[in-house]
Amino acid sequence: MSVSTSELPEEKVPSGSAGLRSGSLGTADIAFFVVSAAAPLTVMAGVAPLAIVLGGIGAPVGYLLAGVTLAVFAVGFTTMTRHVTSGGAFYAYITQGLGRPVGIGAALLALIGYNGMEIGVYGLLATTARDTLHSLVGTDVPWLPISLAGLVLIGYGGYRSIDFGAKVLGVLLVAETGILVLLAGGVLVKGGAHGLSLASLAPSHVLVPGMAAVLAFAFAAFTGFESTVIYRREARDPARTVPRATYVAVGFLGLFYAFVVWIAVQAFGDDQVVRAAGKDPAGLFFTAITTYAGGWAADLMHVFIVTSVIASLLAFHNAINRYALALAEEGVLPHRLGRIHPRHRSPYLAGIAQTVLGALVVLAFWAAHADPYQQLLLWVNTPGMIGLLLLQLLAALAVPCYFRRVRHTEGRVRTLVAPLLAAALLTTAIVLVVTHIDLFTGASPAVNTLLVVVAPAVFVLGLPLAWWLRRSRPDVYARFATEPTD
């Protein structure tokens, strides 16, 4: 259990006694972490064109439906935040509802999920930065130095205080959303290609076979939104701040994604956008912003895609460090990983360990002559995405189980109806992602099978680990995810 030292000046906190900087983050700060992890500009420019190709002009509705599903999940999820205060977030909730063996499996799943979502993105950073340099100055740079530089930069950001990270993410998020707002303003002012249309909302354009694939992409675009609870120990008035930040993040992402995809449809016209997206998916948004704002705006979009990726990396890095901190305090991971920097109040040893792990994975893919996008990004990201979706499903199931066993004054809608509905919807989302896995990876059936089974296999490995802890370290097992660490 960490010792809070928020009342001491930062520079006078004695070594070894520092705790995380409590009371540092407000609703907006936590929302910045969550929305930045989703990387909205990268998702829109990089993935939304493919959603339009597959789902047609009804694609914006897919993002709305995903947002509604996760808002339903947030009802039970945020209700539980008022009752479970452990720093372990997802795995603590799952432990309280479904038991320690399942919770320990969930802890491993969280580690593989968040690490997969972050480390793979170093391949995306290399690709986007290399493409931006080539587009702006005509320079070709090897991808490895870019990824390694990113590791150092993100490692430093995680080493610094959490409020430093919140300020950085705030600036970067404003930049990436701002360029999309600029595009939207140009399209709205000029009335689109052939006048503004709401045909995207028509049932005939929504209820099409390709919508299943759009929903798979849409759910993936929200990955990491639930990490609000990871920052509970550093939040101001966490019982209010964390739920608010969760709803703000889900609401913003759902509405913003749907609006921007609709703007892309209007930019080319209902009858031309699918053809334009199929012809040049990677360039769809750059063509649109060049048409409606000018070439200078397209150059800015190139730069802001890189900063969008950096923001996502930093947000996931901070989330991973706090999961590792909680597990170290629990005694599941080495205790040294739970050390907190006496000045910055960051879990700096967990951050260093995560940076080293990222470097090893990046170097392994480089040594294997792998492509930074097709292999490093997609092959590492995909198990992480599936892992986080499974965590959401387990957390949804844990809510009614928990409230069935404890005395409370919460309503049945929050503790039973919404969680069970969310579990059904999340199960559908997982099925959609798995059955359309080839769209995410572009890999062979054998590789896709391996990528799909990684997350469930890691979860199953947690069960014998729980058995071993119960026999060999009963004190660790007994207090796992049961003691508040605030």
Structure description:
Residues 1-20 are annotated as: Disordered. This is Amino acid permease. One of its GO terms (biological process) is transmembrane transport. One of its GO terms (cellular component) is membrane. This protein is mainly alpha-helical and 486 residues long. The chain has a domain at 22-84 and 117-383: Amino acid/polyamine transporter I (Up-down Bundle). The protein has 21 helices and no strands. Helix 1 (27-38) crosses helix 15 (295-330), helix 7 (121-137) runs antiparallel to helix 15 and helix 9 (162-190) runs antiparallel to helix 15 (295-330).
What is the CA-based Rg, rounded? 22 Å
Mean pLDDT: 86
Low-confidence stretches: 1-17
Largest sheet: none
Helical proportion, percent range? over 70%
Class from helix and strand fractions: mainly alpha
What's the CATH C level of the domain at 22-84 and 117-383?
A: Mainly Alpha
Query: Which fold does the CATH topology of the domain at 22-84 and 117-383 refer to?
Result: Amino acid/polyamine transporter I
Q: Shape, please?
A: globular
Proportion in β-strands: under 5%
What sequence of helices (H) and strands (E) makes up the elements? HHHHHHHHHHHHHHHHHHHHH
CATH superfamily of the domain at 22-84 and 117-383: Amino acid/polyamine transporter I
Q: How many runs of DSSP E, i.e. beta strands?
A: 0
Region (Disordered): 1-20
GO biological process, one term: transmembrane transport
Keywords: Membrane, Transmembrane, Transmembrane helix
Organism: Streptomyces broussonetiae
